[in-house]
Amino acid sequence: MDQKEDIFRKAEKLLAEKQLSIESSDRSRPWGGFYVVKEEQASRFIRTFFPSLKVADFQKFSKLSPKLLMVAPERRLSWQYHHRRSEIWRVIHGTVGVIVSDTDEQGPVRVLVEGDSISLNEGERHRLVGLDNWAVLAEIWQHTKPGEPSDEEDIVRLEDDFGR
């Protein structure tokens, strides 16, 4: 079994153990892939993967989208931002790099280890960077425009290693 298949299998097993249901998945991303957890389980997802946060902290958002991201070694997600969402990430396995900026200029890579989390504001530029091994992150999209939820079309790519 290859490493990608193994990390996805472990992530799927973890979600099942935590009684979180997968709504959809994508294993074909050039940087790895993800599992989307059912939105109605957002509170359980927060309690499970973001123990330092309170579910009440998210009540101002009309919609939340919980996901697990699997980031491949030495792969970078696009340098991007969003108009209709903020995000919170927490590393639950491995280490990953992150670049964050208020401008289009990329700064240095900051290394996040298991247990570290980061909050990204709407419009804030960001990029995940795979390091030496696979990493798994819990992610919550916090939709900031009621009635107009964020989706994959809400990605403004400033730079992309894969020509998207």
TrEMBL record:
The lineage of its organism: Bacteria, Pseudomonadati, Balneolota, Balneolia, Balneolales. Residues 62-160 form the Mannose-6-phosphate isomerase type II C-terminal domain. The keyword Isomerase applies. GO terms for biological process: polysaccharide metabolic process. Keywords: Isomerase. This is Phosphoheptose isomerase. GO terms for molecular function: isomerase activity; nucleotidyltransferase activity. Coiled coil: none annotated. It comes from Rhodohalobacter mucosus. The keyword RNA-binding does not apply. Pfam families: MannoseP_isomer.
